[in-house]
Amino acid sequence: MPSPSLFFAQLFNGLALGSLLALVSAGLTIILGTLGVLNFAHGAMFMVAAYVAWWTMVATQSYVLAALAACAVLVVLGMIIERGIIQFYYSRPPEDQILVTFGIGVVLVEVIRVIFGGISHSMPVPDWGSGIVNMGFLIYPKYRVLALGIIAVALLALYLVLYRTRLGLIVRAGIEDQRMVGLLGINVKRTFLAVFALGSLAVGFAGAVYAPIIAVNPEMGEQLLVQSFVVVVIGGLGSFPGAVIGGLIAGEILTLTTMFNPAYSHVMLYLAMAVVLVLRPQGLFGVEGRE
Question: Which family does the UniProt entry place this protein in (predicted)?
């Protein structure tokens, strides 16, 4: 049996991973729920954000500039992808969307590989995040504790955008009935662009926050993409609360299972997804009948 200190360490690791998955999945579920686009480039976009944050941090020694640069680059990148490619695939079959977004992801990975090489890089932890925190029952890296708070604030900000602004109202209406939004005279093309940019902003900020925790390399987004889709399935398509709760559940499953047997961590995650699909096909917070 694991020691209490190991259990609490893994519990906090699960919260850290779960909060990351929640933020990444929130951007993914907004795009998927509103636009109906299966964005298989989402993991690669996370990777690009991490590289931008790492390069900016090394060049300027400013974590704030690194985070801002990652967010700005991802918003611009998202808008270019949506206007240049994705807008032509809204009415195409899902398999076409999968192929084109998967191809975009491959291109992004290879471009980063050409520019920075295939080796891993380590983003320095900012001065205010260095050191450890003694919680009495656990000694834990200070930056990871602060990262939980930073992501929590980001999720709250995203919640306010979705539930307290006109854009959020349009996004939620589009998730429920995309055709009706167009009939109400709303500029759908402009809204779709804003939605894709919002989802890109979420994954960009997630990449910047998590870059000091993991190794920055071209393959870092692949596994995260799969985990994020699992979170969307568990939480429910188009549901922001579902993305948050699903992310935390997935993070704890992965880390706590690793404590006993790392080989079964993803097996247990997929098993949890299968159970949800059997008992509640629309997900924990999804709406039955939503397309």
Answer: Belongs to the binding-protein-dependent transport system permease family. LivHM subfamily.
Establish if 284 belongs to a structural domain: no
Task: Dump pLDDT digits (tens) for 121-161.
Answer: 999 999 999 998 887 777 888 999 999 999 999 999 988 88
Res 177 pLDDT > 80: no
Residue 236 lies in a domain: yes
Asked which of 3-17, 129-143, 276-290 is least confident by mean pLDDT, the reply is 276-290
Looking from the CA of 57 toward its CB, the CA atoms found within 13 Å total 23
Could you tell me if residue 288 is inside a domain? no
Spatial distance between the Cα atoms of 40 and 225, rounded to a whole number of angstroms: 7
pLDDT at 262 > cutoff 80: yes
* Model confidence pLDDT, tens digit, residues 91-110: 788 889 999 999 999 999 99
Alpha-carbon distance of 126 to 208, in angstroms, equals 12
Backbone dihedral region for residue 36 (phi beyond 0: left; psi -120 to 50: alpha; all else: beta): left
Separation between Cα atoms, residue 5 and residue 13, nearest integer Å: 12
- What is this structure's pTM? 0.90
CA dist 40 and 103 (Å) reads: 8
How far is the CA of 134 from the CAs of 78, 130, 210, in angstroms? Answer: 40, 13, 22
CATH of the domain at 222: 1.10.3470
Task: Provide the domain limits for residue 184.
Answer: 4-279
Number of structural domains (the chain) is 1
Query: What was the pLDDT predicted at 174?
Result: 66
Residue 183 lies in a domain: yes
C-alpha span between 207 and 212 (Å, rounded): 9
Q: For residue 59, with 0-12 CB atoms within 10 Å meaning exposed, 13-18 middle and 19 or more buried, which class applies?
A: exposed
How high is the pLDDT of residue 30? Answer: 83
The torsion region of residue 61 among left (phi > 0), alpha (psi -120 to 50) and beta comes to left
Cα–Cα distance for residue pair 203/71, rounded to 1 Å: 8
